[in-house]
Amino acid sequence: MMKKKQTKLDIDKILKSYSKGPSKWELDNITWYDRSTNPKTLVDFLNRIKELEEKTKLSQEEANELLLLNELAADLDEEECMTLLSTDEEFARHNFIESLARKSALEVLTNERVSYETMNLMCKLSPTDFILTSKRTQDLINSIHELVIQGETLSQDVAGA
């Protein structure tokens, strides 16, 4: 009988290398993606850092998260953050229009129509802001459609895609 050569995995080593918690990419692009454009997200982001810093004992997962959040915070510009959180009317108007346009674009792409609630908000805007929101909604929809077409074109050369 021939003996099989066994390769022993160092299971403990493998499990210790596993990083619990979200990756920097996930925190940057999913969880806190709009921290530089959305005042509420920025405040929540900064509060999360403060919350973790003030804890007396952090789990390994929380310590990793705090490290990554501080790296992401280092990329923020303090003056831009202050502007985002200011009460500048023009800036607030622009942010509201952009946010509403994104919401309506997502609704059109997923439900093929703007919801009653979103349209009700849009109808409360001045005619100029309504037009800006509608145009920005259409621009976002067109951009997303274009990206999908580009992705389909690029994936034609990929096996199994």
What does this structure look like?
This protein is 71% helix and 0% strand. It has eight helices and no strands. The protein has helices spanning 11-17, 24-31, 39-54, 60-74, 78-85, 89-111, 116-123, 127-155. Helix 3 (39-54) packs across helix 4 and helix 6 crosses helix 8 (127-155). The two termini are 45 Å apart. The relative contact order is 0.07. The mean pLDDT is 89.
Which structural traits does this protein have?
161 residues, mainly alpha, 0% strand, flat
Describe the protein's topology.
Layout: H1 11-17, H2 24-31, H3 39-54, H4 60-74, H5 78-85, H6 89-111, H7 116-123, H8 127-155
Helix pairs in contact: 3-4, 6-8
Provide the structure class.
mainly alpha
Along the chain, the helix and strand elements come as HHHHHHHH
Low-confidence stretches: none
Q: Residue share in helices?
A: over 70%
Number of helices: 8
**Overall average pLDDT:** 89
- Beta-strand portion reads under 5%
Q: What is the 3D shape?
A: flat
**Count of β-strands:** 0
